[in-house]
Amino acid sequence: MDTRSRPPRRGRVAAAVAALAVCLPLAAACGGEGDGVPVINLYYAPEENLQEVVDECTAAADGRYRIEYQLLPRGADDQRVQLVRRLAAEDSQMDILGLDVTWTQEFASAEWIQEWTGEQQEQAEQGTLAGPLESARYQDRLYAAPKNTNVQLLWYRADLVDQPPRTWDELIEAAQRLREQGEVYQIITMGAQYEGLVVLYNTITASAGGQILDEGGTEAVFDQGAVRALEILNRLATSGVTSPSFSNAIEDDARLEFQSGAGAFQLNWPFVYPALQEGAPDLAENVGWARYPAVDAGSPSRVTIGGYNLAVSAYSRYPEQAFEAALCLRNPEHQLFSAVNDGVPPTIESVYDEPEMAEAYPMREVILAELRDPATRPGTPAYQNVSTVMSAILSPPSDIDPERTAQRLRDEVQDALESRGVLP
Amino acid sequence: MTVLNERRQVSNGRRVERGRLSEGRRAERRLGWLLCAPAAVVMVAVTGYPILYSVWLSLLRYDLRFPDEQEFIGLSNYGAVLGNEFWWNAFFVTLLITVISVAIEFGLGLGLALVMHRTLVGRGLVRTSALIPYGIVTVVAAFSWRYAWTPGTGYLANLVTPEQAPLTERASALGIIILAEIWKTTPFMALLLMAGLALVPEDLLKAAAVDGAGAVARFRKVMLPVMKPAILVALLFRTLDAYRIFDNIFVLTAGANETSSVSMLTYNNLIRGLNLGIGSTMSVLIFITVAIIAFVFVKLFGTAAPGADQERR
Questions:
Q1: ipTM score of the complex?
Q2: Residue A422 and which of A67, A226, B23, B280 are 20 to 30 A apart at CA?
């Protein structure tokens, strides 16, 4: 509030009331600046124990800044809309932003986040796995520090199959064999019309050595590998081995279905394991994990990575402190803490060797193997458009006609890349 | 035509009169204008500017994610939107929702208005309880509907459509959206129609009864004609409201399975897609459609429509 001119008494009361009215909804934004310590606002998705990490980093800053954890909504779309709306209005109250890996290029292109350079860049890159780091780059510059990553695995019923299938062919055959034997046979994964379907398709395409976009992310390619991935996706949906709700399932639906004992195989993120141990301990004993199925037995699968990156807003008033705080939030010690307590896999390779990881992540070897040679989603500022259009065209997978669908994808994704098309 | 001419003469007459206004009256009039001016300026600033700005944006290629590629492209955005199947799909979905919900609301609303008007006992209670749905925030009501129709948690889904997820299929989802709209806004319709019913003089009805008109004839020949202005106001308001439907769809389906309305589609392109050009084009198209609907109502129903001279409010 402006205090240069001293308002008369009644005016002062009014000013105080007005200040209160403005500040109350933004308590964190207005409060606390009085002691001269810069407040770094961290906007991040709800993560149960992140507040502890935030407090530790504030303590480590030793009075140079204080980090305030501002919760974003739970849904990824809602998080993005809030960030985008405020950045478009050049909101200076946001300092560190928690970005889903697919938004980093978009925010960088819009000039909403700052490039990481010099020593800070070195620190962010040091020991970080190549895949997650790639997701934080745009046009060969680093725009964010990867905080955590994620990758899907094949979960299978060890009491039904001796050897986990290594390829999609083996997987589908194994399920068919189980069905003929009258056993539980279903392959359960996410096939609803949303990002999860794009992730599935992206993984199969990358495993087949195919490409969705060209290197620069400006041309829709959908080469032979991408067509082959369409064939596999269609075969998965039409050979009678998926669950009936395949084309409507998202992560939690798939988890619950497998947890109820309805499936022999599940392709899903690692969060399903602790949930399984808690929800169905008997079943959990019989569940094994393996690398995501490949397309050709000779070349291992390349699995799409998820996760979150930390970026510094272009409108931040304290960028120096924000970079420093972001580095603290994702340092090895805190990544280990979050991995163990919040179930988010680290992006720094050495963290996987810590003894605590062995207990919380019995499957860490497989995760790490997949992370060493992962697939990233197409790196384009227009990813949101591309993904929306792709999920609309790929859904339902049982209607895919490989050559024809590929042509449609080429046309409509090209439009989406140029942001000329209309989003559904 | 003759009526029009007469009116013109009357207004000419007024103008002549105006010339003869005394100095004092003229000053008073000027003061009146000055007093109105701030409000008028604010109105223009808060409505006129954004409207013109979005018309301007609709002529640009302007995507927030590509700040360097901003350029003037004339009417290309209109071509892109009008040549797109998502737009037309949303347009017809919106029309369908508008026509069906307004028609049903009108029928139910008229019935409710008659009940509220004629109730002798507990009139206050009847009116209050009928207005409850209108008093509930749309988003809150929409969430209730959504949970009610979600398999597993919802009583309606379990009761009416076990083993199915009605909100994930197009036809049933649209049905639920229309149902939620009707439930929510029928009271509003009834309220407006009741105001119209209050205009019908008791004497007129009694006279008609004496002349031998039955209940149906009294309703059709006496009440409806007198109520016509109120009916038109109610229909116009509700049609425009229904055409801009957003919150119910946003909460119930978020536009999945081809249930987007034009407003939902605009939101997706503007706020989520960050495409200011395409999004503004859609806003302008909605604005034009709304203007056409209002124009048609006024033209079609002539002087009885709101905005026409006789019914100025």
A1: 0.73
A2: A226
